[in-house]
Specification:
A hairpin with a 2-residue loop joins strand 6 and strand 7. It is flat and about 55 Å long. Among the domains are: 95 residues, Up-down Bundle (Acyl-CoA Binding Protein), CATH 1.20.80.10; 88 residues, PH-domain like (Roll). The chain has 5 helices and 7 strands, in the order H-H-H-H-E-E-E-E-E-E-E-H. A 7-stranded antiparallel β-sheet has the order 4-3-2-1-7-6-5, with helices on one face. The chain is of the alpha+beta class. It is 35% helix and 17% strand. InterPro entries: Actin_motor_Myosin, FERM/acyl-CoA-bd_prot_sf, FERM_2, FERM_central, FERM_domain, IRS_PTB, PH-like_dom_sf. This is MYO10 protein.
Amino acid sequence: MVLRGYVPTSEETLQTLAALRLQSLNSDFSTHAPFPRLEELFPPHVLHARLPAPRPDPPPKCRGARLHVGLLAGGLWGHSLAKQRAERDQRLRGRLREEGASTMAAIVEKWKLLQGMGRPEAMAAYVALVREWPGFGSTLFDVDLRTVRPRPGPQRLWLGIGAKAVSLYKPGEPEPLDSFCYGRISSFGASDSSTFRLSVEDRDLLFETSQVDEIAQLLNTYLVSTGAHRPPQPQDPATGPLDPDPTTLPRGLCSVAGPWQRPPPTGSFGS
């Protein structure tokens, strides 16, 4: 989940997690230790996010009166455009290699500070660091929330299914937009093969997702495990009021953890 970007935190913390992973795998730093590839230690999307956004291709030259040059002009223009794209891709690949080398160097420096830390201690420190995220322990699903306002259309979110609550996150944000205790959920189920409906009191949330069955099964498991309420029965396909932008949903349906605190400096983990 860390490597896929499902633990929203700073690059500094991600580097510390990578160093702890190296300490767990290889023990103390050594130039002879086997190095995993960077993408096995650090989320690749973080490096890609540092790259400048690609510029759109320039519009084709004016047609009309010079259309008679036809294939010759088109061929020359296409060749020039392909050359520009190749040069741009080469620059981006070079920049990506530079960013990767810089990140690996920072990870190695943090790894060196962990000298003497045993494998169980490194594993415990890794988990302790990740547990500081309030959503730790939740299973996250990529979903599109159908919204009516402020603008129609789906909104990409994370749906977090945890032991005590269901939460909605904006991808990459550590704090939830909203959380729903299981006691507030009146019903849930599949409206169709790609739409999951979650009814919270008098509101209906519709999510477009390819993991309808997985979400339903996990929700049912947690509801059964609480023992306090009978699991809601899945809903039949139906139409109903759609929820507005999740940022307008009222908070306070259940208690949530406080803000994610900054991690301790590298090398200060206790046993």
